[in-house]
Amino acid sequence: MTKTIQPADNQFLPEASFDDPQEARAHLKSRLAAAFWHFAGKGFDEGIAGIITVRDPEHTNTFWTNPITVPFAHMTPDQLIRVDGPSGVTVEGEGVVNLPAFSIHAEIHAARPDTQAAIHLHTNYGRAYSSLGKLLEPITQDHTAFFEDHAIFDDFTGIVFDRVEGKQIAAALGECKGVILRNHGLVAVAETLDAAVWWFTIFDTCCYISLIAQAAGTPIRLDDEVARLTAAQIGSHQVGYASAQRLLARAASHNPPPKA
């Protein structure tokens, strides 16, 4: 096995890279299964809603994702499916993807070739906050990670069944790490799956904190200059990647993959 370590930053954990696409694929699939275990532990698995897509390291117009019938807590790397971006057809594995959800993700990946992963789950706090139709205010340190780095898609018209609305959502997202879909929920993206897991997790937490702070009174908003400075300190990809490591390690320790 040829494996190299490239430092993301002197302060943070290094990211693994692989010369062999098969080894890279196996690594991604194991991390993706752990991501589903993590979100299952947070209660983010509801019905047939919820999807994570990860770009294949070799066939970059296809994406590893969850088949619609498998609960997050039961997911294994072998149960993941690889889906063609343009068509939504399964090209590897057994099962089908949630096509309305995938129509959003496919267009986000097409518009953002820098993104390895995109996450959209139906969380309670994300859905509740999305009904307000407004951006998160920088009221805590964690909120600043999304300051000037998230957007709103303000045009809910029902379940997404075609790529037109997917393109509109991708346009609303722009170059940001997250978008609030009004009356729907949250989407987070990143250049690695690990970072995307962290950003989605803390995105939902920030929605929760905003809701309870607003219910208690009038939150004190950080000045733009302070929010922008703090965002530069905690909103980078390297911080997102490093922050996800404990989440995924804990999830994997509770749900070890089956032995060969």
From TrEMBL:
Gene Ontology MF term list: actin filament binding
SMART domains given in the database record: Aldolase_II
Name of one Pfam family that matches: Aldolase_II
Domain Class II aldolase/adducin N-terminal, chain residue ranges per copy: 30-211
GO cellular component: cytoskeleton
InterPro entries, A to Z: Aldolase-II_Adducin_sf, Aldolase_II/adducin_N, Aldolase_II/adducin_N_sf
Similarity section: Belongs to the aldolase class II family.
Protein name: Novobiocin biosynthesis protein NovR
Phylogenetic placement of the source organism: Bacteria, Bacillati, Actinomycetota, Actinomycetes, Pseudonocardiales
